[in-house]
């Protein structure tokens, strides 16, 4: 297989300039940039004079005073392009060998946040999540996302979730690249229809399970996380499937949303966690009159004396009723379980009774 290093091995300095000119966001490519004058950094995003592109070894060379967690860093044109656009080496290689064209969203400046730099502003966050969403592909039968969901929710049969996509994504932790995983990308949408963030579930590349992710110093990292939030998340949900006949369900996790659908036939939106569930707002214009609340039946927290999942679900029910909606509370039968557990039990019992009938 062709390697990126083979392709650029005999490049002239002008070819490196051309690479940088092709991929870097246009607003960085000023006269001063090409003359090697200090300017803002296309990687860490902030500052007005921390970055210099000088191509001094003829390899698209650059230096930034802050790019290494606030310390200086130098690199070549490949690193500059990959880190400023968020492309992986493989994606850049595919562009250079003509295997793929550059996703249009990558033309936007998408500074990747490094430790020690200021947070991204709202529009940069929005570009970053829109870029991820655009770069991911729709789910299809037998892909890693579908296989994972079918393993968590056996027998799963549901409308194709338009709010979920699949991507191959680098997993970064505190500036360290941990690995690259098949990743379920879920679009988190506010009541007014705007995307506020993307939630990511990193999957094991070999088997239908969540990835086991461990940093170089042995820290176990979460396979499920939100990306940056371009907008406050309160009120939103992952719109897994369209409401039916004015009825909609809400649950905490993605898998629970599918499990509730399998158990009750109610199209259900995951809110990702119990706090966001308690803040869910029914979007106007979809004709929703009834909200089914699929609570996680958490163990009682000894400090508060309540089951957190149940308490937040009841809080939501109370507010929605005050807003004039009909609510239906659903609680798993066994304490310490959620609807994903309950569906698996129901499914296994059905399988056993089928086998018994067949025997
Ligand atoms: Zn920088």
Automatic annotation (TrEMBL):
InterPro entries, per the entry: DNA_primase_Znf_CHC2 (IPR036977), DUF7146 (IPR055570), Phage_T7_Gp4_N (IPR013237)
Domain DNA primase/helicase Gp4 N-terminal Bacteriophage T7-like: residue ranges: 36-78
Domain of life: Bacteria
Name the UniProt record assigns to this protein: DNA primase/helicase Gp4 N-terminal Bacteriophage T7-like domain-containing protein
Species this chain originates from: Cupriavidus numazuensis
